[in-house]
Amino acid sequence: MLTEEVAAIIRVLRTKRGMPYEDLSAVGVQRSISALEQAKVSISVDKLAELASVLQFDLVTLITLCVALSNNESPRATLERATTVLDQFLDSGGEQLIKAQFDDGKLIRRSRGKPLNRDNATKILKLKSEGHTQAYVVRTLGLAKSTVNRYWRGS
User: What fold is seen in the domain 3-86?
Assistant: First the structure.
Protein backbone atom coordinates (compact mmCIF):
# COMPACT_ATOMS: atom_id res chain seq x y z
CA MET A 1 0.00 0.00 0.00
CA LEU A 2 2.78 2.44 0.84
CA THR A 3 5.44 0.91 -1.37
CA GLU A 4 6.04 3.99 -3.50
CA GLU A 5 5.94 6.35 -0.54
CA VAL A 6 8.48 4.24 1.37
CA ALA A 7 10.68 4.19 -1.73
CA ALA A 8 10.62 7.97 -2.03
CA ILE A 9 11.29 8.62 1.65
CA ILE A 10 14.11 6.05 1.83
CA ARG A 11 15.72 7.57 -1.28
CA VAL A 12 15.59 11.03 0.28
CA LEU A 13 16.93 9.90 3.65
CA ARG A 14 19.75 7.86 2.14
CA THR A 15 20.68 10.75 -0.17
CA LYS A 16 20.52 13.34 2.63
CA ARG A 17 22.78 11.16 4.75
CA GLY A 18 25.15 10.60 1.81
CA MET A 19 24.88 6.85 2.37
CA PRO A 20 25.68 4.40 -0.42
CA TYR A 21 23.75 1.12 -0.61
CA GLU A 22 26.64 -0.68 1.12
CA ASP A 23 26.00 1.31 4.30
CA LEU A 24 22.53 -0.23 4.48
CA SER A 25 23.81 -3.79 4.25
CA ALA A 26 22.85 -4.42 7.88
CA VAL A 27 19.22 -4.36 6.72
CA GLY A 28 19.56 -6.22 3.45
CA VAL A 29 21.72 -6.75 0.43
CA GLN A 30 22.33 -3.88 -1.98
CA ARG A 31 19.99 -5.38 -4.55
CA SER A 32 17.14 -5.40 -2.03
CA ILE A 33 17.68 -1.75 -1.12
CA SER A 34 17.75 -0.86 -4.80
CA ALA A 35 14.50 -2.75 -5.40
CA LEU A 36 12.96 -1.06 -2.35
CA GLU A 37 13.95 2.38 -3.64
CA GLN A 38 12.41 1.52 -7.01
CA ALA A 39 9.14 0.45 -5.31
CA LYS A 40 9.53 -3.07 -6.69
CA VAL A 41 9.31 -4.74 -3.26
CA SER A 42 7.53 -4.16 0.03
CA ILE A 43 9.19 -4.08 3.40
CA SER A 44 8.09 -5.55 6.73
CA VAL A 45 7.64 -3.32 9.75
CA ASP A 46 10.60 -5.03 11.43
CA LYS A 47 12.87 -4.35 8.44
CA LEU A 48 11.55 -0.79 8.17
CA ALA A 49 12.45 -0.26 11.84
CA GLU A 50 15.96 -1.64 11.19
CA LEU A 51 16.33 0.58 8.13
CA ALA A 52 15.21 3.67 10.08
CA SER A 53 17.78 2.84 12.75
CA VAL A 54 20.59 2.46 10.21
CA LEU A 55 19.51 5.76 8.63
CA GLN A 56 19.47 7.30 12.12
CA PHE A 57 15.89 8.45 11.59
CA ASP A 58 12.87 8.08 13.87
CA LEU A 59 10.55 5.27 12.73
CA VAL A 60 7.35 7.14 13.66
CA THR A 61 8.52 10.15 11.67
CA LEU A 62 9.39 7.94 8.70
CA ILE A 63 5.93 6.34 8.75
CA THR A 64 4.28 9.74 9.23
CA LEU A 65 6.05 11.06 6.14
CA CYS A 66 4.93 8.03 4.13
CA VAL A 67 1.30 8.32 5.24
CA ALA A 68 1.28 12.09 4.62
CA LEU A 69 2.65 11.53 1.12
CA SER A 70 0.05 8.83 0.47
CA ASN A 71 -2.80 11.05 1.69
CA ASN A 72 -1.45 14.12 -0.12
CA GLU A 73 -1.38 16.12 3.09
CA SER A 74 1.22 17.77 5.27
CA PRO A 75 3.06 15.62 7.79
CA ARG A 76 1.76 17.91 10.55
CA ALA A 77 -1.86 17.29 9.47
CA THR A 78 -1.13 13.56 9.52
CA LEU A 79 0.28 13.83 13.04
CA GLU A 80 -2.64 15.93 14.25
CA ARG A 81 -5.12 13.35 12.97
CA ALA A 82 -3.05 10.55 14.50
CA THR A 83 -2.96 12.40 17.83
CA THR A 84 -6.75 12.72 17.82
CA VAL A 85 -7.16 9.00 17.08
CA LEU A 86 -4.54 8.13 19.71
CA ASP A 87 -6.33 10.24 22.33
CA GLN A 88 -9.64 8.51 21.56
CA PHE A 89 -7.95 5.11 21.78
CA LEU A 90 -6.31 5.93 25.11
CA ASP A 91 -9.50 7.48 26.53
CA SER A 92 -11.41 4.29 25.70
CA GLY A 93 -8.98 2.13 27.68
CA GLY A 94 -6.94 0.93 24.71
CA GLU A 95 -3.61 1.19 26.50
CA GLN A 96 -4.78 -1.11 29.30
CA LEU A 97 -6.08 -3.60 26.74
CA ILE A 98 -2.69 -3.64 25.04
CA LYS A 99 -0.88 -4.15 28.35
CA ALA A 100 -3.25 -7.05 29.11
CA GLN A 101 -1.90 -8.81 25.99
CA PHE A 102 1.47 -9.23 27.72
CA ASP A 103 2.69 -11.16 30.74
CA ASP A 104 6.19 -10.36 32.01
CA GLY A 105 6.96 -8.62 28.72
CA LYS A 106 5.94 -11.58 26.57
CA LEU A 107 2.90 -11.69 24.31
CA ILE A 108 0.23 -13.97 25.75
CA ARG A 109 -0.58 -16.76 23.34
CA ARG A 110 -4.19 -16.98 22.30
CA SER A 111 -5.93 -20.14 21.35
CA ARG A 112 -5.89 -21.15 17.71
CA GLY A 113 -8.82 -20.46 15.47
CA LYS A 114 -11.16 -17.57 15.15
CA PRO A 115 -11.43 -15.32 18.23
CA LEU A 116 -14.72 -15.29 20.15
CA ASN A 117 -17.23 -12.64 19.08
CA ARG A 118 -18.88 -11.87 22.42
CA ASP A 119 -21.71 -9.90 20.83
CA ASN A 120 -22.70 -12.83 18.60
CA ALA A 121 -22.30 -15.29 21.46
CA THR A 122 -24.57 -13.23 23.71
CA LYS A 123 -27.27 -12.89 21.04
CA ILE A 124 -27.16 -16.59 20.14
CA LEU A 125 -27.29 -17.78 23.74
CA LYS A 126 -30.14 -15.38 24.54
CA LEU A 127 -32.22 -16.76 21.67
CA LYS A 128 -31.29 -20.30 22.69
CA SER A 129 -32.42 -19.65 26.28
CA GLU A 130 -35.72 -18.36 24.90
CA GLY A 131 -36.24 -21.79 23.32
CA HIS A 132 -35.57 -20.91 19.68
CA THR A 133 -33.99 -23.38 17.26
CA GLN A 134 -30.60 -22.96 15.61
CA ALA A 135 -32.33 -22.50 12.25
CA TYR A 136 -34.36 -19.62 13.69
CA VAL A 137 -31.18 -18.03 15.11
CA VAL A 138 -29.42 -18.35 11.73
CA ARG A 139 -32.33 -16.62 9.95
CA THR A 140 -32.84 -13.96 12.61
CA LEU A 141 -29.21 -12.94 13.10
CA GLY A 142 -28.03 -13.62 9.54
CA LEU A 143 -25.08 -15.67 10.77
CA ALA A 144 -23.58 -18.80 9.23
CA LYS A 145 -24.89 -22.15 10.49
CA SER A 146 -21.39 -23.10 11.60
CA THR A 147 -21.07 -19.92 13.67
CA VAL A 148 -24.40 -20.45 15.41
CA ASN A 149 -23.58 -24.11 16.02
CA ARG A 150 -20.16 -23.27 17.52
CA TYR A 151 -21.61 -20.86 20.07
CA TRP A 152 -24.65 -23.06 20.65
CA ARG A 153 -22.51 -26.07 21.59
CA GLY A 154 -20.11 -23.94 23.64
CA SER A 155 -22.79 -23.00 26.18
Answer: 434 Repressor (Amino-terminal Domain) (1.10.260)
